Amino acid sequence: MLYTTFGNTGLTVSRLGFGGMRFEMPEKTDEMAAVVMRAFEGGVTYFDTAPDYCDDQSETICGRAFKEMKKTGRPFYVSTKTMESAPDSIRRQCERSLERLQLDAIDFYHVWCLVQPEDLSSRKAKGVLRAFRQLKEEGLIRHISVSTHLEHGYVEAMLDEGEGLFESMLIGLNMQNHHLRFAGVQAAERRGMAVVTMNTLGGGILTQYEDYYQKSVRPGDASILESALRFNLSLPGVTVALVGFRNIADVEDTLAVVERFRPMSASEIAETSAGMKGLYREFCTQCGYCSNCPQGIPVVRLMEAYNRALLAGMDASIKQMRYHWNVPDVAELLAKCTQCRACEEECTQQLPILARFEEMKEASKAAQLD
């Protein structure tokens, strides 16, 4: 196992982190807790979960494993999150998480799901940072962290808004969106923060459609899993890369990849990122030229979600908007579109963006009826 220092905290953690979002049978607590235990036995010491993951069972599953892990006397570290803003609501959710995780304190507690540039300012006005400070003073949490999917330079301003409280950042980053998110990693590194990557495997897309991404497998790598994990772990400033484990087989495969880890050079990283872009023809490459919609519509995010539809169907696209970008109703979001075509005029690939909007609106309306 690879280990490193976690930012300025002085803690030593495994570079491979356990992502608790993808248990394949969340209703079977003991069986899924065994998946967590196997990762711990393999040397993983960073465990990430959250309320609502896996039909609201992830924290309970992890807590079952943590109870046994504590008996070993070996250190491990737990990350969880809250989207609440008001101090009383934050405290209630923190206490509920502690109970389910069977812990006295949460190591890394995240201000969760900052997806719009104004999100942190809005939550600050309601008292989120004040509440986090209080929880830390009381010893219920040990380190204040932040979780974001922001891109295009927004991370720097968000971290400034955090008043120097954030000691680590969780950010969605992989070989597909490296050009959008890596500036955020650098902003955190300049502040001495640890950086943990989620969506290391593209939310499972890279491994689920491995044949499609075969050209992105680096020479000497056995699979896209190996290339994707090596890519993230080779990025300067990345401390831990999370992998969402479904079962023990996933853990075994990933542990084997880490054991034979070879860092990528800067040129390999650049080649991999460029090669990923080369795979896309009808896919949005996330260049960002369409990001200044006069109506404030997040065109880049919608087209990133549409990429998933091209591989896995429109349901996957709507789920991406709902669970990754916190947009429960895409049709409502797109109602603001005036069809001015500014986005299509800026699109370097000349994609039919407005037609894709219509597809997503219809899929969103159908999803609301289900």
Q: Architecture of the largest domain, CATH level 2?
A: Alpha-Beta Barrel
Shape: globular
The beta-strand count equals: 10
Q: How is the main sheet built?
A: 8 strands, parallel, barrel
- CATH homologous superfamily title of the largest domain: NADP-dependent oxidoreductase domain
Proportion in β-strands: 5-15%
Structural class, by secondary structure, is alpha/beta
Estimate nothing, just give the exact number of structural domains. 2
Average pLDDT figure = 91
Order of helices and strands: EEEHEHHEHEHHEHEHEHHEHHHHHHH
- CATH fold group of the largest domain: TIM Barrel
Give a short summary of the structure:
This protein has 370 residues and is of the alpha/beta class.
Textual characterization of the structure:
This protein has 370 residues and is an alpha/beta fold. It folds into two domains: 268 residues, TIM Barrel (Alpha-Beta Barrel), CATH 3.20.20.100; 71 residues, no CATH class. The chain is built from 17 helices and ten strands. The strands form two sheets. Strands 3-4-5-6-7-8-9-10 form an eight-stranded parallel β-barrel, surrounded by five helices. A two-stranded antiparallel ribbon has the order 1-2. The radius of gyration is 20 Å and the shape is globular.
